[in-house]
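Q: Focus on the chain.
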Amino acid sequence: MNARLGLILATAALLSGTGCATGGGAPSPGPAATPTLPGAGGQILAEGIRPRDNSQTRTADNFLDQAMSAVEDAEKEGLYRQALAAAREGIAADPENPKSYFQAAVASVNLREFLGADSLFTRAETLHPRYILETGPWRERGWVNAYNEAITPMNEGDLETAVGFFEAANSLYSERPDALLQLGSLYSRLGRMDESAEAFRSSMGMLEETREVAMMDTASAATWEEQYGVSRLGLGQALQYAEQYEEAAALFGEMVADEPDNASLIGSLASVLTEMGQADSVDVLYENLLNRPGLTEFDYSNAGVGLYRIGEFTRAAQAFRAAADLNPLNRDARLNLVQTHFAAADQAEDGSEDWEAVIPAARELLSLDPLNGDVWIFLTRAYSELERDEEANAVFGEYQAIGYEIESLQLDVRTDGGAGVVGALKNNTAEQGGTLLLRFHFGGPDGEVMGTTDIRIQLPAPEESVDFVGDFSSSDVVTGYKYEVVG
């Protein structure tokens, strides 16, 4: 009876919330910048082609003015669409007139056609560089609108759509790091680790350029410190998961030097060094870490994974037990605990003590994850190895009588609260076409249930599997869960 052993690594939440962005008030679409205004660093911006009026630009200006004065959303949208149409007619009639591109871009921002707005602004700025002095406020307004458009799909779990809006926001305006921070987190959740690393690296670079100014004000300094910390931690995690271990180790090493008492960072550094095969250094780090007070279930869980990977099963089991004790709903820590006892017993010459430990750990896990086929096998194997054959046969018979099991169960924690759950139901011997109702209970770090989600699944043919997904909305962060069969 071979069981699949794959420990679950607890991932730290990177962003504390997904509130709407502010700023970027409505600038005037008025006349182009005057020829004498200085650009960045006191340099005079080139004039390029001077904007000029014609019948199309005057029509577009008229519709833009009316749209900005309109009260009803439907009226506003209609007027902006007429402004965009007039501006496009102007582009067709005079392709070298920067004003028509500028007008089309302003209309596109208000119509939330963000990528089109970006290309139109860019064309206007290329033809008439002094437009940069006017496009900046409009680009920022577009950034705010695109950022806020991403919030709903992100909260609903539609990560790809959210990514598209955040990418559009960052393309429109590249002087605020917030969209990059969200992109780094979402790319990571989508498994796009190289892109995640690049987003966090870009946000770090942007923040480093603004550090001196940010430090002049207490409020802005606090925001800067938080965003820089998120960027650096996110980059380290992305590099780790992208298997760029040397760079990740160097970055986590710098962070530990800055915060020598940060248990989470020590655990992250140890995890990376584990992947690099530096067992001695890892052992010292974990010895330091596990003797610290105030560790979280996250700290214990990831320490357990690192110790497991270097073969320190006894201490790994102690770490997983500590995580499980901190949160009665920490299903993943309990799964890792069972697998650690199983691995220790399987490799020991006399594994009776570890086989004994598998039994209560497996029973405890089945109270949270009752359809986990692997755990039923672990439990059967433990009784068998201890020559408790009657109990082994009883457990295996109980498992077979269920007729189905859940595979690949995963919790998708959302940084702003709530969670998703995904898995697959495998039909072993049950009749095809029947339905199964699973009720998932979700809770936070205190182990208290904060809410439930029901998932109804139709049984496939025997020996076949069907995927399922569930969603739980909450303003609180989810760290644990369990489920039960209710029908």
